[in-house]
Amino acid sequence: MRDILLGDLDAFFAAVEQRDHPEYRGRPVIVGGRPGERGVVSTCSYEARVFGVRSAMPVTTAVRLCPQAVFLPVNMTRYREVSARVLAIYERFTPELEPASIDEVYLAVPAGQGKEVAAGIRRTIRGELSLPVTVGVAANKLLAKIACELAKPDGMMEIRPEDVPRVVWPLPVKVLPGVGPRTEERLHRMAIHTVGQLAAYPERLLVSSFGKFGTLLHEHAGGIDHRPLTTSREPVS
Fold first, then answer.
1. pTM above threshold 0.90
2. What are 104's strand-pairing partners?
3. Nearest-angstrom CA–CA distance, 179 and 210
4. Would you say residue 231 lies in a domain?
5. pLDDT at residue 103, as a whole number
6. Residue 114, SS3 per DSSP
7. Which pLDDT score, from 0 to 100, does residue 1 have?
8. Helix axes of 12-20 and 76-93: crossing angle, nearest 10 degrees
9. How far apart are the C-alpha atoms of 126 and 81, rounded to whole Å?
10. Which of 12, 149, 192, 199 is 20 to 30 A away from residue 81, measured at CA?
11. 149/187 same-domain check
12. In whole angstroms, how far apart are CA 25 and each of 20, 48, 67, 137?
């Protein structure tokens, strides 16, 4: 048995800019383009999110919502350099890694060591790189991802299998992988709004509506995830 961790660098691009430019700290920072340029927001600091700015939003909309923000172009070369340094820190704790993106990495450690390793990772990344990282700890990738999302920003959370009814079931169904706007709308038409309602729905009826994906939905609603870690040396962007 193993614990699965997900390390997620909070507002990564913006956090790197705030670290490298002290004058940006405490100010809303939006990475993706400058006012007057076409483009979308790649990421933004939590100070900008207070004003409703979100990733994938047109820069023109972000300017309207938060005109006082610092607007910066994407410096992917710099972000990849920092991401590689973070990955090297993760490798000190375990060789079992699965980079999911430039700022997210799944890790596997011996069962029962997840919280201790997560604390060590957070302490090391903060101490050596001055960056915030949130870590979710669980028995599988699904629950580690949900734990990570619930712990943001700059936090740590563990979800054990017995925690699923209390922690996961009250959440909206869109927290589950594969539940995009269309699937969410279909589930809502079936009076399924929360993960708990999905878990209680008969699996055979989900299969009738969604085919094999219905079985996967039912498993995920119960906190079950059979996906293994797949190791790779290069984080995808």
1. yes
2. 8
3. 12
4. no
5. 97
6. helix
7. 83
8. 100
9. 16
10. 149
11. no
12. 9, 12, 17, 29
| Strands 133-138, 2-9: pairing kind | antiparallel
176's tokens: 């589950």
pLDDT, position 38: 83
Q: Which domain holds residue 63?
A: 13-72
Mean pLDDT of 111-115: 97
Sheet hosting strand 43-44, strand order edge to edge: 43-44, 29-31, 70-72
pLDDT tens figures, 6-54: 999 999 999 999 999 999 999 999 999 888 888 999 999 999 999 999 9
- Out of 17, 104, 203, 219, the active site residue is 104
Whether residue 104 lies in the annotated active site: yes
The span from the CA of 188 to the CA of 194, in Å, is 9
- pLDDT tens digits, residue range 165-181? 999 999 999 999 999 99
Q: What is the DSSP string of 158-219?
A: EE-GGGIIIIITTSBGGGSTT--HHHHHHHHHTT--BHHHHHHS-HHHHHHHHTHHHHHHHH
**Contact yes or no for 220/72 (Cβ under 8 A):** no
Q: d(Cα 109, Cα 92) in Å, to the nearest integer? A: 12
Fill in the amino acid letter for 64: R
Per-residue buried b or exposed e for 199-234, using 16+ beta carbons within 10 Å of the residue's own CB: bebeeeebbeebeeebebbbbbbbbebeeeeeeeee
Q: What CATH code is carried by the domain that includes residue 120?
A: 3.30.70.270
Domain count, the chain: 3
